[in-house]
Design goal:
homodimer, alpha/beta, Quinone Oxidoreductase, Chain A, domain 1, Rossmann fold, 2 domains, 6-stranded parallel sheet, 28% strand, globular, MDR_fam (chains A, B), ADH_N_2 (chains A, B), oxidoreductase (chains A, B), ADH-like_C (chains A, B)
Chain lengths: 344, 344
């Protein structure tokens, strides 16, 4: 049977410090577009959109703690979330032509165990790429983290770091839909403008221009913060702890400021967790997968009615993958970073 | 009307670093044993037992965050938990001869607003001093923190720091009653022996003799920790985070290792809160006061049947107060530290 080209992005070596493009490698392999005989519950996917996510950096470190159930090995393609089309299925739940999202490999075509497919895509009147973002992992992350762990009440004060990112931009909009006051931090003026003018945040600031994060937070939250949606860790978390209100909540989604450091920054203000009876809760998105149908019911009408916006930053072609991925860690992306490798 | 002597322990000045006896002062005042006319809901107390508690150090720092609703001022007596007898009452809920526990002042006789009385003492077949400990604030602290926030399940692995202290010794025994595996850390061999031989901990270790806390925890918890009852903070918390299991819980009760530091130690392993989906929750005992009747129903039979032990370290006389209190921070106390100033 005829083989076709299967371009891939390999991890070349485990990474220390900031990742470089040269830590990855574009490899041209080939694949037979057929589920091999006797391979059981395997599904052959054509990958359309690959998602660049900060957690992927964690997996690039040798001996990293097991995280989201995935392991990277040098000489193998990266694994990550993506939107794919089923070309052939060894599992009854999927059939040729289905659109799905879940864990796939950074390559044009992938054979994956069916269990790696997270959900079948049922609604295609919205951009397919949304299933890497607002309708995919970042969407449920923002929804579960904010509503289930943040337990927001009308009028509460919400702070979101990495606020223009894939998750942060949604948390801010969900907070506004809940009639909260919401402030976001981001790393460029352009992002700050988007937060205020496009995404409806009440206020936003560029953390790189604040010499004193504690003072910046006191300026925006004179009465303190009820919910801090944690995406960055380190110095930001330390300043936030000083500004939390009693019975505040900190859903901890990520700590992107720490992933590239060989020596983590120390957080010194943890005693405020006690003084102010704060609940800080780390989570991984799978905890909220059972809420996905409910989440779609909530979010799809808002998208269709234009009440929620979603900023995407799409690059074309697998070759652009390494640059796109490492750009997350210097804040090059403007919104959800996606690598488009095929449109259908 | 005749006046009587009223010895008091004053805060002399706000404290920086480790507190010294000379930061406090014994003052001899006098008092008329009568509720002044028109003073409303005030109760006149004869103080019997005063409780030495780590949180008192927090209040000795100038501009400290408001904590447990109390404020210390130089030139005024310390405030703290204590067991007292009502001599006269301006409030209908209390009458002469009642035994009560709650917030009182470090002095022989106190006039306090009735709202500072926490509970009337109904059961006197157990030592009265217990109402500063197992039947008082530390008891509800251990009960609420462990059961409500720790959510223990049979067979889970529990680590308690400051394990022989007023709260820790109860958490360990509650964990054993729940059929958990429990290990405690303390600062002397004598305390370690008490944990293992008297209080029923499965294991215990002297943290001062462990050069590598991470290794010590891995030795005692090869499969990791489900619940860490946090009393100390700092380096211990940092090592614990490396050893938590998925979905672990950290009720955060205190961080005594940090209270005397002018520069708090940085905790570097917080990203594990995310990797392992840990819930860390700070609390102040008042959160659980509504559970006090239920707590008594649980704990009193265990005390009467000898199934729960409680180690007290009682010194005599108000003059011993300053030394007793500061001894908490160098681990001089063996169990719950109490200043007895009168027996009835």
């Amino acid at each position: 049977m005829a083989q076709v080209r299967n371009k891939q992005v390999f991890l070349k070596n485990y990474v220390t410090g900031f990742p470089k493009e040269s830590d990855m490698e574009i490899v041209e392999d080939s694949i037979t577009l057929k589920v091999p005989e006797g391979s059981g519950d395997v599904v052959l996917l054509k990958n359309l959109y690959l998602s660049c996510d900060p957690f992927m950096r964690i997996l690039m470190t040798e001996d990293t703690p097991l995280y989201v159930g995935l392991v990277y090995s040098p000489g193998s393609p990266l694994l990550g979330f993506g939107v794919s089309k089923v070309l052939e299925s060894g599992h009854q739940n999927y059939k040729k032509g289905d659109l799905v999202w879940g864990i796939t490999k950074w390559e044009e075509y992938s054979l994956v165990p069916s269990a790696q497919i997270n959900f079948k895509i049922e609604h295609t009147d919205v951009p397919l790429s949304y299933y890497t973002g607002i309708l995919g992992m970042p969407g449920i992350t923002a929804y579960g983290g904010f509503f289930e762990l943040g337990c927001p009440k009308k009028g509460e004060r919400v702070f979101v770091s990495a606020a223009s990112g894939a998750v942060g931009q949604l948390v801010g909009q969900f907070a506004k839909l809940t009639d909260c006051y919401v402030v976001g931090s981001a790393g460029t003026q352009e992002k700050v403008d988007i937060l205020k003018n496009k995404l409806g945040f009440d206020e936003a600031f560029n953390y790189k221009e604040e010499s004193d994060l504690d003072a910046a937070l006191k300026r925006h939250f004179p009465e303190g913060i009820d919910i801090y949606f944690e995406n960055v860790g380190g110095k930001t978390l330390d300043a936030v702890l000083l500004n939390m209100r009693s019975n505040g909540r900190i859903p901890a989604c990520g700590m992107i400021s720490q992933y590239n450091l060989t020596q983590q920054e120390g957080v010194t203000n943890l005693a405020h967790i006690i003084y102010k009876e704060i609940r800080m809760e780390g989570f991984v998105v799978f905890k909220f997968y059972h809420l996905y149908p409910k989440f779609l019911e909530f979010v799809l009408p808002h998208i269709r009615e234009g009440k929620i916006a979603y900023v995407e930053d799409i690059v074309e072609g697998l070759e652009s993958g390494p640059e796109a991925l490492i750009g997350l860690f210097s804040g090059q992306n403007l919104g959800k970073k996606i690598v488009a490798i095929a449109r259908e």
